[in-house]
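Supplementary Note 3. Input sequence used for the single-chain structure prediction.
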Amino acid sequence: MKINREKFFLLRSEDKQLNTLFRTPSKLLTSRRILFVKYTAIFAYALMLIMQIWLLVSFSGEPTSDAARYTGDALSCVQNGSWFPTAEKFVGNGGVAGTGYVNFLCLLFRITNNIKIAYAANILLVQLMLFSTAYITKKVTGSDTVHYSVVAIFCLFGTYWSEICFARTEIFFTALAFFALALVCSGKKSCAVFAGVVLAYANWARPLAMSFIIAILWLFFYKRSRIFSYVKFASGFAAAVLIIMTFTYINSGKFIYQPTVASGNLLIGANDDADGSYDNVVFKEGHAGYIDPEKKKTMSYEEINSVYSKAATEWIKENPLKYISLMPRKLLYFFVSETYSGDVYFNNGIQTGGAVYIREVLSILHGDGDRTLQTGDVLIIYTQIFYMFVFALFIAGVIFSAAKGYWRSMSFLYGLIIIGAFISMLTVGGARYHFPYLPTMIISAAQLTDATLVRRSGKDITEQ
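The predicted structure, written as discrete structure tokens, is reproduced below.
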């Protein structure tokens, strides 16, 4: 019997488990449960679109932090008739950040310099992320109902409502990265090349693609793909990187792909004042990462990064136990909260991503706050509670997949979160850093929901 290598997973026993749990045709299942999850999905999708459009129209705040940097760089390039980065950006900075995303903004701002075009593009990118997440889940499980659970959970996730009003790399990178993963999951020959190209561009915006590269290579191995699949993916990625490097050279005189700012993040998580969070006091005067502003203006990004990396590595060598002891705290910051995109409910007038805001809300709820509870606070509280619910389902889904014997089918997705958490423990903890891995949590939660609620009366289709 000839095995279809692109569709048949590594262990036949695991494929049988997937048949038992997920692959009973929906027409043989209880229609009431399917209708319930289907209507829930329709309601959730409509709600997400309503919230996104409402925020797109009503939001009037100015970009802050990273978003201000990206939009400022893009508008400057548009005004000068150039693309990003220009030669001067490599001097006086610790590296240019979000390069691919800034050029995406340049393209949008050449249509109109109204920032809301970026927010509208985010809405479309969220749809791409949703489609990719549902497609991957369906390909892994083989279920013809699991996409309802994916849509319901994804669209009820408040972060995907408010994050669209930030012009930063989270949505852009995650949408492209999971689209690349979906292309690989399709098993079609030409898609491996395209996946490499898409992931290379995603990495140009945010250098986190290594976790997805490892996941894709593991998926090829797990599915017993032929060597040509590896070659096609690697060729697409390499070709895109070469084109990007050539573009950067023509535009700035630097034949590079992605100048990194990772040394700065490493130093934030490895200094005397480090507490595991994204506290950048280390760059202030009198601390290890301080560089005189006048001197910094003349330094290249390589020289600046050298200062940061040297300070961080020396501190780690001198304080290995303290560095290790900070890792659990970094992991806690990485996972614990989901309030970082709530600024938009206050037109960026209140920063909601830190402990200060959480303490403020708790004070309001106890009746001794300096202001009253607002609609934005309620939506943020909802988002945090829903995130905790999904995270619990994710953990339960991991345990369920191990107990039922199909965890290997999900292992390439679990690996994404493991690698992301590991990077955070080495550098710095921050809730926003888990955003690219939220679809993985949703996939695990959806497959658990589909198997235990929608399909609990399903039978093994191989026995019918």
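The CA atoms of residues 21 and 452 lie 8 Å apart. Confidence is low (pLDDT under 50) at residues 1-10, 458-464.
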